[in-house]
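### Sample
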Amino acid sequence: MEVSVITCTMRDHYMENVIENFSRQVWKEKELIIILNCDEIDINKWKVRTKDEDQITVVQLPQNTTLGNCLNEAVSRAKYPYVAKFDDDDYYAPFYLTQSLKAFRKTNAAIVGKRTVYTYFEDSSLLGIHRPNFENKYVRNVRGATLMFQKSLFPQIHFPNINRGEDGSFLIQSVKKGKKIYSTGKDNFVCIRRADLSSHSEPNHRLIKGCKNLTFTKDFKSIIAKDE
């Protein structure tokens, strides 16, 4: 099984996080397509950083291109039968791709992701489990940062030409067309709530209310990682 990872970003300072999330994956049959969505980003810096990485492609689109269309461009460039959407600021453990691809093997889902996710609040060093009880089951919705799907869905099912809610619309289209969505276990992914709250659209206090098993830690990586 081969997978194309796609990441869209307009934040130059997340370059290392974007590349490292991909590089640490133990799954070998993979590629990464990075879409830069900011006119001020110097694409040459990214190309120099990835010049020895045959599996990584960097593309820059005009800043007025919506996130939805950036994602569509990335999917259209994907050469493998599975597409995994990675966010630029979250954490994907080494067996993340392995876990998701195994779920395709054991289910008849067209889309795999996570409805229950670990969430780490950077400013308070709190780790919690958001929306528990949605693991290893068919669902109608998964977290956008964990979205993986069969490329054959595209372009009949695609991301809308908008900047927010594009993941939800993709999933709604899929459900309407009878596609099954499977939520894997919570392991191997962390939604990171940065100390800079301006980078998030939802307040932390609301997310914390939806979390269970809150614990203080400076080392969430060892807690959430699970070999597959």
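The CA atoms of residues 38 and 63 lie 5 Å apart. This sample (Glycosyl transferase family 2) is used throughout the tutorial notebook.
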